[in-house]
From TrEMBL:
GO cellular component: cytoplasm
Protein name in the entry: Serine acetyltransferase
InterPro entries reported for this sequence: Hexapep (IPR001451), Hexapep_transf_CS (IPR018357), LbH_SAT (IPR045304), Ser_AcTrfase_N_sf (IPR042122), Ser_O-AcTrfase (IPR005881), Serine_acetyltransferase (IPR053376), Trimer_LpxA-like_sf (IPR011004)
Entry annotated with the keyword Repressor: no
Lineage start: Bacteria, Bacillati, Actinomycetota, Actinomycetes, Mycobacteriales
NCBIfam families: cysE, EPS_EpsC
Species annotation: Mycolicibacterium hodleri
Length: 194
């Protein structure tokens, strides 16, 4: 894809995922999630050239300062990725994120080891991750899954599942939960906290 077509796709995706969206011009100016994604795309290209890894990290830190979102330039992120609100999002170096993924503020795709191995999660396609969720380690979240708000996920989540709680409990998503536009923060099971 060309740079212009990627920008248009990201703007269209932002409108599709945010009912408060007022238009492409406003979104391009004020959406910190879009700014972080666009900066990541540039930093990722720089990261691919070993001689430019330093500037890639500097760009990442500048973006973190400006947006509150930190995406390591070594991470792999697919198309139509959207970060709603964004503040406090952290995506680690070996994280892999599929297409059509949406995450909310405070999400961490983090590691659990200090060794230089695959240490961050792999997120499938069409996954929604609720606010404050922590997905830790080299696990896999399958396609069409949802992670509830504030869930702590340390084990694989099969495709078509929902994970909620601390530690996360995984169950199959119902048709109602699969409906487009259903916020994963509603998936919290209050009985788990009693």
């Amino acid at each position: 894809m060309t740079l212009l077509s990627t920008l248009r796709e990201d703007l269209t995706n932002a409108r599709a995922h945010d009912p408060a969206s007022r238009g492409d011009v406003e979104n391009a100016i004020v959406y910190s999630g879009l700014h972080a994604i666009w900066s990541y795309r540039l930093a990722h290209r720089l990261w691919a050239k070993p001689a430019l890894r330093g500037p890639a990290r500097v760009l990442t830190q500048l973006t973190r300062f400006l947006t509150g979102i930190e995406i390591h330039p070594g991470a792999t992120i697919g198309r139509r990725f959207f970060i709603d609100h964004g503040m406090g999002v952290v995506i680690g170096e070996t994280a892999e994120v599929g297409d059509d993924v949406m995450i909310y503020h405070g999400v961490t795709l983090g590691g659990r080891t200090m060794q230089q191995v695959k240490r961050h999660p792999t997120i499938g396609h069409r996954v929604t991750i609720g606010a404050g969720a922590k997905i830790l380690g080299p696990l896999t979240v399958g396609d069409d899954s949802a992670i509830g708000a504030n869930a702590v996920v340390t084990r694989d989540v099969p495709a078509g599942s929902i994970a909620t709680g601390i530690p996360a409990v995984v169950r199959v998503r119902t048709e109602k939960q699969r409906e487009e536009g259903v916020d994963p923060t509603y998936y919290i099971d209050p009985a788990m906290y009693i």
